[in-house]
Amino acid sequence: MNSTYINNTKQAEEALKQAEAKMNKRYRLGYHIMAPANWINDPNGLIQFKGEYHAFYQHHPYDENWGPMHWGHVKSKDLVHWEHCPIALAPGDACDLDGCFSGSAVDNNGELTLIYTGHHYIDQPNNIFFQNQNVAVSTDGIHFTKLGQNSVIAEPPTDSSQHFRDPKVWKHEDTWYMILGNSTKEDLPRVILYTSPDLRTWTYHGVLLQGDKNMGFMWECPDFFELNGKHIFMFSPQGIDAQGDKYNNLFQTGYYVGEYNYDSNEYKHGEFIELDNGHDFYAVQTFLDDQGRRIAIGWMDMWESDMPTKADGWSGALTIPRVITLGANNKLLMNPVEEMKLLRQSEQVLYQYRAISGSYLTEVEADLLEVKVVFDLTKSSADLVGLKLRGTGEEETVITYSIAGQKLMLDCSNSGKKTDGVRQTALSAEGQLTLHVYLDRSSIEIFANEGQATMTSRIYPSEKLLGIELVAERGEALVNELTYWKLKDIWQAE
User: Fold this and answer.
1) pLDDT in the model for residue 168
2) Which residues are annotated as catalytic?
3) Residue 162: is its pLDDT beyond 80?
4) Using the 8-state DSSP alphabet, how is residue 415 labeled?
5) Is pTM, for the whole model, over 0.85?
C-alpha cells in the first residue's frame, strides 16, 4: 500500500472528525446514505461483495462544497443499516493528482476492484483538464491499493474532447467490458467502449452510442445492463433543454431500452425517458445483487441547486435503494427494496374504504415517515386527489394527482426551501392511484402506482410535522387505504 494513499486518507479522516464535531444536525437524514460531514455527490462502485453491500460516493472531506474528489465508503448487510468505513480513495498520486472521479466496482475472483477516473487540471480557472482511468484493489473490501501500472487507460481517443470519465465495468462471458462518458471535439455526447481480459490491459473498440445536440453535450455516469432480455443504457445527460414538464432540472437522468449486439457493437434503442421527475435525482448507478435484483441508487441532489445544509457543515445524500424492473411498453419501474420494511417501528391504519371530500387532517408527530395511500378512482368524482404533509405553521409539501389531466404533481414551494417548487409528470392511473411516500428530515421520495412515476426532492422544513392531510377537490374520492409507519433512525448513535 503506497504511502501517499495512507497519508492522504488518514489526513482526510482527521478532517472529517473535526467537521463532524462542529456540524449542525437539524437536517441530517435518518435512513439515507450521507458522509459523516462535508460534501458528497455521485454514488460509485455499488456492489455486493462477500455477502455485504458496499456503496462508495464522490466526497470532499475537507469542505461542504465540491472540491478534490475522494471516494467515501459505507457498507451494509441489508441495504438499510449502513456503517461508515474509512475513505477508500484519496487523490494526489501521479495517476489522479486532482481527483478520484466516479467509477464502478467489480468482484474479480475475491478481489474487490475499483475502476475510477483520475482528474488532472492543466488550467483550473478555465476548467482545462485531462482525465484517465485507474484501478485500485482490495481483498478485505476496506483498504485499497492503487495499481503500480496506473493509469490503465492513459488518454481518450484522439477524436474526443477533454471529457473522458465515469467508467462502468462488467463481465460478459470471459471478457471485461468498460463504457465511458465522453464527447466529440464538436461537443456531441457519446459513450465509448473498451474491453480487457484482466482489468489491466484495455483495448478501444469505438463508439457504442452517440447523440445529437438535442441530447446535450456530455453523458455522465453511463450504465449498461441486461434486464428481461433487453439492454438498458442508463445515463445522465448534461445540456438538454426543458420541454414542458420534462427535463426541468439543470441536468437529467434517464435511459434507453434496446437491443445490443456484442459482436458488431451495435445498439438499437427507443426514446429517451427520464427516470425520476423530482427536483433532486442524478448520477444513478445500478448493480446486480445475489438475489438477481437490479438495484439503483442515485445522488439525491442537483448541481447548482440551493443546499441549505452547507451552512450546517455538510451537503449531499444518496437515495434509498430501489429495485428496477421492466414494465409494459419498455418502461423502467423503480420501487423501494423490500428491506426498507426493516425500518418500520409502528403501523397506523387510518382509513379503509372511506369516502372523503375536501380535506382530512390526521395529526402525526414524526421526523421519519413512510406513508401509503390508495385511491379508488373508479368510485371517485373528484377532479384532484392527493395528500399534504403539513407543518405546524404555514409549511406543507403537497402531492396531488389530476384525474382528468392524468398528471402527478409534487409542490415543494412551501416546504421550507424551493422557489422553483413544482414538478409534474404524466401518469396514467387507470382505476387506482397508489402513492407510496418516504419522508426523511430533509427529503421526500414518492413512488406512484408501483413505480410508474417516481419523484425525489430535497426539502428543508423549519417547522415540525403536524400531520398527513388527505385531499379530494371538486368532488368525492374513495380512499381504500391510508397507512403510515414511523421509521427508525439508523444514524441516531452518530
Assistant:
1) 98
2) 42
3) yes
4) T
5) yes
